[in-house]
Model the fold of this input.
Amino acid sequence: MPINPETLDQAAKRLRGARRLVVFTGAGVSAESGIPTFRDDNGFWQRFPPEQFARWDGLIKTAVVHPDQLAEFLQAVLEPIAVAWPNAAHAAIARLEQHCKATVITQNVDGLHQAAGSKQVREVHGSFFRVVSLRGQPIRSLQREELVAVSESLRRTRSGMFRLARLLWSLRPMFGLSWRGFKRPGVVLFGGAMAEPDWSQAQRDAQLCDAILVVGTSGLIYPAAMLPGLARQHGASVISIDPYEPGPSHVWLRGRAGEVVPQLVQAAFG
Ligand code: OAD
Done:
C-alpha cells in the first residue's frame, strides 16, 4: 500500500520538530517478526479465549483441569517470541535515538526493541525475559536460549501421562519455588498491576513529550491505551502507523510497520 507523500511529509515534520519523542508500540510492530497479534485474524485471543488464558485465575484453573491446553497456549505464545528477530520497524525506531531524545513505551513482552538497539524502553506489560516474585519484584533475567528450551519442553508436555507435573517441570526456569520465594513470568495479565517502575515512567514520558508515534496497537486495553490521549492533552502531536486503526491521531500513516516506520524515519531525519 503506497503512502501518500503529503501525509508522510506532514508526519515527518511533526517528528523532526519534537525535542522529546515517545514511540508507543503494540503487537503490530512485531507482527512482521512472526509474532501473532492478539485481535487480528489468527490472533492469540481468537485461538485462546482471554477469559481462560489472559488472567491468573483462568490459567490456574486450566492448569489443573486441562494442563494440555495450558501447555499448548504457553507454547504458542513463547515459541514465536523465543525465535523472533527484530524487523525493519524495530530497527528504524532504534535509529531515532541518534536524532532526538526518544523513549519507547511498549505493551509487548518480546524484548525486540532492546534486541534492535533501543536503550530507553518502558515495558508496561512486563517481559517474558524477566522472572519476578509474586508481587512483581525482579528475581532474574531469562536468556533467549532458556525461552527456546522451555518452549521445546512444553511441546513434549502436550500429550502422555502426568501432564501437570511435566508442565510444571517444563516451566521451572520461570515458574515455581526459588531460593528467593515463589517466582513467575514477569508479564502483566488482565486484572494485574502494571509493570513498575516502567508504568509510572511511561505516564511521565507521555506528559512531557512533544510528539508520540503510535505503532501497531488497537488501543483497546487500558490503562496503557490512555497514553496517546494523555500526550495529546499535554500538547503533543500524535502520529499513528497501522494498517487498519487510525487511533486518536493528528496524522495516520496507513500501512505495515516494517514498511512505513523506516520511510518515516528516513523522511524525517534522512
Ligand atoms: P492487538 O492485537 O489488539 O492490536 C494489534 C494492532 O496491530 C491492530 O491495530 C492491527 O491493525 C495492527 N497491526 C497488525 N499487523 C500490523 C503490522 N504489520 N504493522 C502495523 N500494525 C499492524 O494488540 P495490542 O494493541 O498490542 O495485553 O494489544 C494490547 C494488549 O492487549 C496487549 O499488550 C495484551 C493484549 O491482551 C495483556 O495481555 C495485558
